[in-house]
Amino acid sequence: GAVVSQHPSWVICKSGTSVKIECRSLDFQATTMFWYRQFPKQSLMLMATSNEGSKATYEQGVEKDKFLINHASLTLSTLTVTSAHPEDSSFYICSARGGSDQPQHFGDGTRLSIL
Amino acid sequence: GENVEQHPSTLSVQEGDSAVIKCTYSDSASNYFPWYKQELGKRPQLIIDIRSNVGEKKDQRIAVTLNKTAKHFSLHITETQPEDSAVYFCAASLGNFNKFYFGSGTKLNVKP
């Protein structure tokens, strides 16, 4: 149980385009989802916390207008990287939890490459 | 905010030896400390966790110790095996299962 699916797993696109990444909880309702970014050989950096039905809370230094997060249902959160540039290339991972007393479960990640 | 530091960045051990990875945290309010194992390009996998009301927890070959006064916690892997080779991350959480602040990671290499 507690499976989190992330899609796509890998995307390559041109500079200036927008890319949407989906994070789904398959067998539980996720009241909270988290989005992380990981550069090669580096740690996971929390970008934002997303609660179903409310606006995401962004960490300091993360541009809200650049990284749009939507958590419209209890099983789906999306991260849209708007007007992506090469410096946005990274590994993006989501996690989800069912409640305040439940552990986080991670998705498989999305490798984003901007040319 | 919380700041988690992790050492060493790389660790190489012989199969069968023990491995220890250490982390410190800055916010005394943190009360949940998970450890994750991540293989290249894969999702982080929870291997063990500890809450602030416990000083030590063990699960077969893996153990975690927590010193709240000193604000540091450690991962201990005994009888290491080649399949233990991966990157290990510690994390601290402000509140149970709330957002995680990760350490910088330790690349463990277990030589057969």
Give a quick set of tags describing it:
heterodimer, A: mainly beta, 11 strands, 52% strand, B: 112 residues, mainly beta, six-stranded mixed beta sheet, five-stranded antiparallel beta sheet, 0% helix
Question: What do these coordinates show?
Answer:
The complex is a heterodimer of chains A (115) and B (112). With 115 residues, chain A is mainly beta. Chain A is built from no helices and 11 strands. In chain A, strands 2, 4, 5, 6, 9, 10 and 11 form a 7-stranded mixed sheet that branches. In chain A, strands 1-3-8-7 form a 4-stranded antiparallel sheet, with no helix packed on it. Chain A is globular and about 40 Å long. Chain B contains no helices and 11 strands. Chain B is an all-beta fold. Chain B has strands at 4-7, 10-14, 19-25, 32-38, 45-51, 56-59, 62-67, 72-77, 86-93, 100-102, 106-111. The interface between A and B is medium-sized, with 23 and 23 residues.
Summarize the entry for a quick read:
Chain A is an all-beta fold and 115 residues long. Helix content of chain A is 0%, strand content 52%.
